[in-house]
Write a structure and sequence with these properties.
Radius of gyration: 16 Å
Strand content: under 5%
Shape: globular
Structural class: mainly alpha
Order of helices and strands: EHEHHHHHH
Helix content: 40-55%
């Protein structure tokens, strides 16, 4: 009675650009247990301004919104995974933090009531 779901980033085409049409085509040609994120990668959810602001507020860090807005111009479609160091700087982090631990810490701040949470929940549980 175990159900296994397959969750893919939208970069599922070996780094080639994929559209919402491609995403829907994937759904049409795969089982109902398959899911695809609306954003390029999972980091695009973790590095969303809403999550970073919540993280910084809880850690007593100064979130540099102007620098974020200049640096992260397309949080939906851009590849932000390799920009972890820049994201940490935007959060005012000056010490060394393992990138994977940093992402896990950010995930604790992605909570119900946030728009970003609703979007992620819709992708995973409603297959929208």
């Amino acid at each position: 009675d175990i159900q296994i779901w397959v969750l893919k980033d939208r970069d599922m085409a070996s780094g080639k650009l994929t559209s919402e049409t491609d995403r829907q085509l994937y759904f049409a040609n795969n089982g109902t247990n398959h899911r695809v994120l609306k954003r390029w990668e999972i980091e695009n959810y973790l590095y969303d301004k809403e999550v970073l602001q919540a993280y910084c507020a809880s850690e007593g860090l100064d979130f540099n919104e102007a620098k974020y807005d200049t640096s992260i111009t397309d949080i939906h479609n851009g590849s932000v995974k390799d920009r972890t160091g820049e994201i940490k700087t935007i959060c005012g982090i000056i010490t060394t933090i393992n990138p994977e631990i940093f992402k896990l810490n950010l995930s604790l701040h992605l909570k119900t009531g946030m728009q970003i949470y609703d979007e992620l929940e819709e992708c995973i549980f409603r297959r929208n």
